[in-house]
Each structure stands twice: as C-alpha cells, then as structure tokens.
Amino acid sequence: MSFTEKIGQLMQRPGQDAIPNDDVPWWMKYAGRGLGTVGGGIAIFLGIWAATGILFAQIDCLIAGIWQMLAGFLVIVIEAPCCCMFLDFVQSASDFMEQKPYYYRGALYIVISLPAVVLCLSLSTIFGSGLIFGTGVIYGMMSLGKKGSRQDMAAMASPTGSVPQPVDQKTTLMEDPDVWRP
Predict the structure, then answer these.
(1) What InterPro entries does the annotation carry (predicted)?
(2) I need a surface site. Which of 30, 48, 87, 117 has the fewest CB within 10 A?
(3) How far apart are CA 108 and CA 59, in angstroms?
(4) Which range of residues forms the domain containing residue 128?
C-alpha cells in the first residue's frame, strides 16, 4: 500500500466508498478540501480585521467583515467538519453537501465570496474572499471532469467528425503540401 493510499484512508469519511465513483484526480480533491479549510480559517481572521473598520466609522467594512467571517465558517463546516465537531448540525450539513455534485459547492463558494469584496474593497476582504473564491474555482474545475483522449478531442475538432490520420511532426509544409488542408 502506497503512502497516498494510506493518507486517503485516513482522510476518508465514515460510510464513504473505498473506491471513488468519479474521475477527479486525487490531488485536486485534496487541493479543494485543503484550500477550503485553510482559506476559511484565514477568511475568518481577515473578516475580524475588516470588521475593525467600525473604529473609523466604516459601516460597510463592518458588514463585509461579518459576512466574510460567516462565509469562512460555512466553508470550514462543509470542508472540515472535524474542526467544529462540538456543533450538532455540522456533520449533517457536511454530509448533505458531500452528496451534491461538485458544481453546487463551487457555485456556493463563488457566490458567498463576492458580497464582502463588493461591500468593502480592501486588501483583507480581497485576500480572504479570494481564497474562498479560489476554492469555488477548484470545485468548478472538478465538476468539468476528466479531459478526453487525444483521439476524442481530434474527432470533436474536425468538421467531418472523423478522426484525422496522425501527421508526421517532422514534415514541414514545404515538403508535403497535403499536411495543411484549408
């Protein structure tokens, strides 16, 4: 058993299938979960920092900071329920989102990351919400699935729908005029 398989078994949720049902690479799953967990924590801290704008009578930055803290907490609840195991609803909310397709999670993260930046355009809201936005982008890419094979992509790109014959890469246009067909 390799090291990555051992780590995968440790990160596995209770009741989860040992064999994944989708074509998403393992590193992309861990990147999404890791960026969501770390980014949610950083977003909470930077939300507190943005909320200190109330000291300078910036009400919009206070609201943006509170929004960013709530968004960061929601991301941590979904991505790392072990961080909030003292709350009863966390595991059920995490399991609910685990059953949904990846684009639900990606769309949710992108939507909840935008209001804080719109309300208060500061470095803390851009960076904190940007990490949540990046997690949403990773889940959006995961929902696209695996890239097709070279033959499948060539068949989709050709106007006739048939797979063109492979061309010798060393042949130039001057040597073989049939290489380039308008």
Answers:
(1) TVP18/Ca-channel_flower
(2) 87
(3) 25
(4) 34-145
